[in-house]
Amino acid sequence: MLTHEMYEQRIAARTQRSALDYFTTSALLGRPDPLASDSPDDVSFDLTYKMVDRLVIAAVETGARFERDSLPSDPLAWLYSPQPPFDGARPLEACLTAPGLMRCIMFHSLDLELGMPSDLVDQILRRDAGMTGETVAGGLWNTGRDRDSVEHGRTLYTATIVDVRVDQIHHVYHAMMACDLAEARGLLRLRYGRQLADQAEVRRGYDASNPLAVSMVSDAMGAILAMVASNPQSALAEGLDLQLESRFAP
């Protein structure tokens, strides 16, 4: 049983670790300690609300990518340091602009190499936009189809991912509504990144005999998925997005 005292100890330990991580990263980068008290001597500059939003989104996308791909480097250090994909600029500053933020989002969504030169990134982004219909100016999802007009053509797709690494085994079971296999794979890539999505086995409908379905999907959820597969226009199908994950140490 978790007592109040144990809970307080856990919170204190977590806070201490977080503070140490921030302090270490800031010190290595020559930045002021973000957990220190404010001072009249602190350097300040004006930001619009849009710029603040862009910084937050860039930080979230970067942190999610580093966590998703188990990258060993520090995401904060990456944001603060000059990076080749941004033509030598620091991502934190480049992402203050709308094009810089979109570049950051697309860069991490496609799981491009962190040290990839800027001109090569441009080529890949242009090529990927041409293949998928995505446009940097129009956002991450612009397939040229009116999604509302094909809503009734959606059906259930399920996907399984088995990612075996040196330090862990990662299992994913995902169920979603999509118009076709291409859209289903696109949704997986946006959720998990290209590296994991390319390993996915995607199928139309629900197969209760699939090994990951047997081990990860409950009987109640399996019944719902079977119902949605047989009747994609049911109320249960609308907005269905099931994500189940498990991790094991080998």
Features:
2 domains, 250 residues, 4 strands, four-stranded antiparallel beta sheet, alpha+beta
Characterization of this structure:
With 250 residues, the chain is α+β, with helices and mostly antiparallel strands. It has two domains: 129 residues, no CATH class; 98 residues, no CATH class. It contains ten helices and four strands. It has a four-stranded antiparallel β-sheet with strand order 3-1-2-4. It starts with a helix and ends with a strand.
Summarize the structure.
With 250 residues, the chain is α+β, with helices and mostly antiparallel strands. It contains 10 helices and 4 strands, in the order ααααααββααβααβ.
SS field, number of helical segments: 10
- What Rg do the Cα atoms give? 22 Å
Oligomer: single chain
Helix-strand makeup class? alpha+beta
What amount of the residues lies in strands? 5-15%
Cα separation of the termini: 29 Å
Number of domains: 2
Task: Please describe the biggest sheet, giving its number of strands, its sense, and whether it closes into a barrel.
Answer: 4 strands, antiparallel
- Largest sheet strand order: 3-1-2-4
On the 0-100 scale, what is the average pLDDT?
Answer: 79
Please tell me what the overall shape is.
Answer: elongated
- Unreliable spans are 13-20, 130-150
The total of beta strands comes to 4
Order of helices and strands: HHHHHHEEHHEHHE
Instruction: Give the % helix.
Output: 40-55%
